Amino acid sequence: MGNSYAGQLRTTRFEEVLHNSIEASLRSNIVVPRPVFSQLYLEAEEPAAQNGRTENDDENDEDGSESNSPPIPYQMKPPPEGCCTTDGFCQAGRDLRLSSLASDSLDVSPGFMLIGLKSPSLPDSLLVVAVDHRFLPDERGHNALLGFSGNCIGCGEKGFRYFTDFANHINLKLSTQPKKQKHLKFHLFRNSQGVLVKGAPICWRGHDGRIRQMSSSLSELHATSDERTSSVALLRSSHAASSYTAASHANGVPQSSDTAQPLPNGIIPASSIAQAVINHSGPGRPSTAGMQTNAGPPKKRHKGWSPESSANSSSVLPSSTVATNGAKLDASATLSSSQRSSATLFPTGLSVAVPDQLLHTCGLQPVIFKGHGPLPQLTGNFNEVLVSSLLQSCYLSSQSLPRVYQHYGPSPIQPLSTEMQILLTVYYLVQLGPEQVPLIEDLEQIFMRSWRESHLSEIRQNQQPQTPASQGRHYGIEAPPTLSGLPQHLGLAPQQPLTPSQLPWLAQLAASSCGEGVVVLGEHVGSLAQGLQQMFSKLMEGRFENTNYIVVIVTASGHETQSCVVVTGKHQCRALAENMFSPNEGLREINYQLSSGEAQELIQFCSSLGQDGDIDSLLDGATLDSNEPSPLSSSQESTDEKSLKNTHSPKDSLSPKDRVLTPKETCSEFSVEWRDIRPIQLAVARKLLSHVCAIADSSTQNLDLVSFDRVSFLILVPPSEVTFQQTVLHLWSSGVLQELGTLEQDSVSQRQAEHYVVKMDQSAQVRVDSLIQEAHTNSYTLYILVHDHAHWDISSASYCSTDSGLGLVDQLLNSRKVRDAPNILILHVTSFPFALQTQFTRISPYNEIHWPSSYSNDVDLYHERTRYFGVSELLESTRSGSSLPLMRCDTSFESMASALEERFPKLHSAVIRTTVLIHHYCAALMAVSGRIGGSHNLHKHTSVETLGIVQALLSAAQQCPAHHGHMILLRIPSLALAAWAHRRLSRVRRQLGLEESFEIILGNPSQPLNIGHNFIDQIKLWLKIQEADWVPRTYLELEALPCILILSGAEPQGESLPRSLKYCDLRVISCSYLQRTTVEQELGLAAYLLKTESRSPHNPGPGSDLLESDGEKLSTTDIEEEESQENESSPVSSNQPVQSSPDVGTSDPFPTQSSTSTSPNVPKSAMDSTTQPSQAQAQPPTAQSSSQSFLYPQLSFPHSSQSLTLPVYSLAQPIFHPLAQTNSLAYFQTLPQHQVAHAPPQPLAPAVRSRRHPSKSTSSSSSSPRASSPHLSCSWARGVSRPPSVLLPRSLYDIITANDGSGLPRCTSFLPHMSVAWASSFRPLLSKMMTCTEQSLYYRQWTVPRPYHMDSNNRTEGRSDNFHPRRLLLSGPPQVGKTGAYLHFLGILSRMLIRLMEVDIYNEEEIHFSVQKDDVQYNPPDALWPDPEVVKALPFDYTVHDPKYDDISLVYCPGYKPACDATPVRQEDMCLRRRTTRIKLSKYAAFNTYHHCEQCHLYLGFNPRYQIYESTLHAFTFTHLLLGEEIQLYFIIPKSKEHYFSFNQPGGQLEGMRLPLAADRSPDCIKSPIFTPTTGRHEHGLFNLYHAMDGASHLHILVIKEYEMAVYKKYWPNHILLVLPPVFNGAGIGAAHFLIKELSYHNLELERSRRQEGSGATGDVWPFIILADDSCVMWNVVEFDARNGPAEHAASLKQVLQHMEDCPHLAHYGLCGIRKWSSRVFTDPTTWEPFSRGHLHDFLLLNVDRSQNVQYDQNRFTCHDVDFTLRLHSAGLLICRFNNFSVMKKQIAIGGYRTFIIKTKMTDVPTSVGPSQYVCAPDSKHLFLATPAQLLLEKYLQHTSHKLFPLSTKNYDHPVLSVDFYINLGPEVTVCFVSSRPHSVNICTTGLLFSGLLLCFADAFVTPSFLKKFSFLKGATLCVIGADRSSLRQTVGRLELEEEWRFRLSDEFQTANAKEDWPLFFLTGKHI
Question: In terms of C-beta density within 10 A (0-12 exposed, 13-18 middle, 19 or more buried), how is residue 80 classed?
């Protein structure tokens, strides 16, 4: 159907576009400029802002008209000497005044137009000029090239390229800058006398803006809250619905009436309808969010035009003007195109008298559509005539299309001529069916296609071809295929123009093809008045009785062609008249007709059965004998059931609450599964969560998830009681409230759950305001506002009254408080998101979540037990060729309704159709019940469909032992009609004695359900509910209840229906408002989740329920007999036995003529063909369809042969299936006798049976007893595997089942919602290949909100992107499970927030405790501080108990007895083995860089919301003896932290850190500087101590390596950074602690000196520092209770440090620390020791003064703290651990000093190198490693010491002696540490035999005499470690080791380092 264009052609020639593109590419700074061909096609322009100006409109641009700014002084160029300067004459002296040139013949160049120019010096005259029409706007104010091109009409001079020069030439004497917008005012044209006259004003944007402002004011003045612009039929325009009656047209001025009395036929009288003349400017070309659009030509002539610039063109959205009573007003255009010359502001012409008694005589109210030319004034009985301007609007729109294109090549493209428009209109009307109502979309597409195909052939040749993959992705021009009945030659318009003289006879020739259906009056018609007068006369004479449309054409010589269309078809007139009502007005008219008694005659007429009597009399005389079963029940009941019924009548039987179901009466197949969460719902919930996380992760900082610790929510639902209770039920059963911690598990009730759901009525204001207030006070709570059924109320609050109930969503959710609250997130949930996807939408396309497809190529992606059957599947069933599709119309019902509509023309069609429908149900109930004598005669007074529905309803409950049945849905929008229908059906049911058989429920949205007590008791038994006062509140709880649900309300409001829904009767829904949302939400009532377990995956199609069908019920109606006679050509002869089922969900084994005729869209070839059994089986849907509702990506069909359809059976061929033959006997045994008698020779039924009960290969149900026993077969259980049937009105059915040009249903091209309008009539169609996202972008590009839409003011704040950052949209098909999905989303969002507030804390018990415990209690459990004397008495615990050191060598301790079953663990397994616990962060926690809140924002300098804190770099140098050189460190000090340091005054050089005095006391200050060494954890390190310190002042310094300086400064700009020298870049944690300690001691000496110089005390300077690990996250304190023992709770770091710093004798201690937290520390609370001596880790309080002689080993990588603690203890310093405090360490898997990388020198990539390769023989060729030698040595000894010290392996009693040095030799070797220093504290080694000796860098304190104190085992191993080989030999010689140890040359090794990397050497030997 033609190429898919990317847009519309630009309004410039190809050469100009090419030139501009090249120039823009050269000027643009964008790397990839836009291709030139993409500029040849129009994209949507941005809509105009208020007053006709866009957001970025430059007031100095040429196209800006008037301005409020003061005029710019301007000096005219002096004229040449001797030229004419007279006003009204050009400089050549030629007259330019219109009065002088009106009758002259003027020479106008091609492409130029005559324009009337206004001169300020001649206010009463116009000057005639010729202007190139490309530089003029069209009637919408668009598409004018900037600049000017004009010719002088007087002297003929041409080529004026600047309006300034032209103004000088024509002597415009101006004081301001000449602008064409100010002076080019009117089009000029010649009238019928050939005189040049003033025409329509030129629509510049400023003028257009004022007119629109005036029209909007009129709209606001007359608008009411109920009025909505309807969108229907020809009555409905895609841009603005406008209609008015003859009275307003006759008066010609706006008028209104406060009160409007309806006429008897329901039409508002014309005298009460006001008309307002507004500017009908067509909309421009909108732009879609997220798409860059070309802005058109350059703003200035000499500036480059960048193709990436955004569009700023103006767009006008016409709005309908409505009167007080709600009737639509005329929105006719006042401006015409340049080709029209007859448009005037008010119509003129002769008057036409409307005959009296027109409605009474003709039985109709004609509708006159204005066409071309002014409509004459109507007088007389004008109240009985309706006038509409929609056709005229369509004509104007089609004439504006060529203005978009202007020129393409040398020849201009002309618009459709008036004659061609009229002829195409005639052809369109001719091809309409007798019952069809014309649609404006069809006519627009016809005009577009005709014009496009006749004028764009040269454009097609230059278009880029599109690949199939790109088609459907570009929203270009796609004309639909030729409509049926339209002549093919009109697809290409004739090359020769159609002349006015040819038009009448061509139109009459076209109309002749349809007989009298369309009549053309044109040959002898001199004016429209004459033609209308003739029409009225013939109409009154009855000559147009069979005519539906009359086209009046006037082609008088010398005049423009005029036309109008008069609709005279009764069905069309009624439909168009009713379409003039808004939905609320229509309902009010129905209520009026019912209350006034006008419908009483119709009701009485329908109650009459003709010769068979009257329904009421038959019911009154009915004999109710409960002992005599009805014919229906007796034919299908088993013997047991008959005996049971004869014993107990229904009234005598026990009520359900008085009895208990016996096993025989229990249905094992019944189950309620709607509460279960399905896998696809979990997937959608995760998608929602990922979108929320994406918002939080974006750089905009619009959502700070880390700052929230809990979730609260409020669900907003429409004001439907059932929807409210349904949401409450889902919420209560989902467990979300318990999961969120809102309510306790045992206390949650449905009443409490109601607090979280609110109906959108007046009570919602208080609830939402309360939530906003809570959100303001609880900044740590994330509030979710869920707007369910979001398309229900999208009205603007400013357009709605407070009592209407509309506009609340706009008032509440779009308020500034909600929008600006950073902790409120809005989730819109809807099945029909189209109205929320406009150009002004508040929802970003990136924040849309579309329901995914659960199947792909017939593969279940989510492993569901259900399969969604939605609207698209219903449509496919109508095209499948099935004899009985799932969705169909009832021809007999339509025939009766049409006949009554003609009989009662004054009644609303809804009243008539509802009355007929209820009459059919009443007759069917009487016929099926068997209670009425002669009930067989009642069959002909109902339809086949209704009879089947009622029979299925009554018979279903009899087939189930528990009496499960079906639900029948009657959709009656009018509340009054629904109430009447409920009363009528209830009366019939009561008189027939069927009150116990089924329930009749009135579904009023504003009222709760009202169910009979006996049925409530039955439901309670089924659902096993024990509560005495329980009543069902939702339709879901009516599962399996036999009932008729009459669902009322103007539109469904989100009510979900149970799976027992079998029939969805929509035969009386309104067909007036054909928006896509309206149609799809009605059809969405039938959406269904099919059970898939009981069906073969290749046969999911619905099967026939034969047990529910009656063989005689379809053969006894007159309708079937008539249809059988009409289909004599059918291959099935008319005298053949007929058997069919009206079940829409069935496929009959015996297709009949009647069933074929009821589906008019079923191809005849499909019925005539004989298919193989495999091909006849229903195939599952496979391909993915991607559009919402009709296009939802749930199930779709790539080929019609594989559609999900009902099987097609031909009687000419048996359809046996091998797997089904075994069921044939069982099947015939279950049939009633009369069904077996009528069975054809071929037993076709087993095939159907096999579809319902597959064989063992697919299901086990075929062999179950229920397959052959009707008593065990539950009709409800079979029904859940089949979707419900849908019955539609004929008009709606025809529209839905027809396809448009893209292959989609025609209703998808309808206006998506009545609150939006198409941005342009020149738009593409939706593509069948569009995904949901592409469909959203389509609507975002091509729809704009109407003024009463809540998003209409979303572009008024000057922002081009008005997306709300915290607003999401979840869209999915109806009844697919969106509520469960978003409830689960709330749960997992809460879990995620809790997860974000929790951390993995190491939770490990201390290891290596001795079996023998010391029972001595040294300190009381509640002691606050340690006593130094008591601490000295405590034994020092040499054993390392920290679980992180589970893989190191034990330190020998005499009193320790290791566990025998201890299994050492290698270090590689530590990360996998270590036990962690999820702990919620306390308010005193330390945080990483991801945490940011207002309280601790000083730690977030990188955040764009805060300033980057200024800092300076300072060098600090000191000398250390061990290093032998000066050490230069760098401090990066923020300005805010400089007060912690001292600087010398002259140069500001850093002198040192300021230290407090020991005597200083401050409650808000920490005296000890905190040093935190860190590497690789710039993001994850816990350096934010603000909350941990509880706001206390403290000095915190991060110690980092030089190469990480930049990244740490970026992430922590407000922290003090201590940068280590570059030489330490490869060093370990030992070097960092070494430099910290030495720097601190050096600073301590400096501070003492500084204070001494200042005559201050020197000895009391605070000597302590804190060494903290970068993973310390929380701290705890133990409080001792004498009764309950110790209890631990969270404490701040401030509390811990101040308590330790306040220790009375703290200066006596060299090192203090705290315990590592463990949840199992209190094994024996009675022996709790508050203080202990032993190893300290991770968090240390170090006395740098007392420990000055003990240094950290700067070379160490591992176990440096163990080594330091042992040496500190041996030096005699006190070490104390405060056990009452504990530190929690967070598991951080990134960075840290324990991350070692072993790599080779050849490559930087880490390689797999074993520990044995860490060392090698000296001078050998070995693979050298790029790893520090000390690290290689430590790792080698850790992993291979069990080989190096074989006697030490698992030998605790014979440890390895290590002198002055602790090193890890692996967990299997025990190390005994001794110090060689004099006066050192060592363990007693007397009698201890060592299995080895380890000497590492032995200094002078190690002597031969010292070593002779120790005894060794024979064969013990010696290991001597040195810096080089010579030092090794010197050590061996100095210590006289060769006397007791034997050495070999092969026992010398070195680390695997190159020589330049300074390897380490070691020598081994054996003890002699």
Answer: exposed
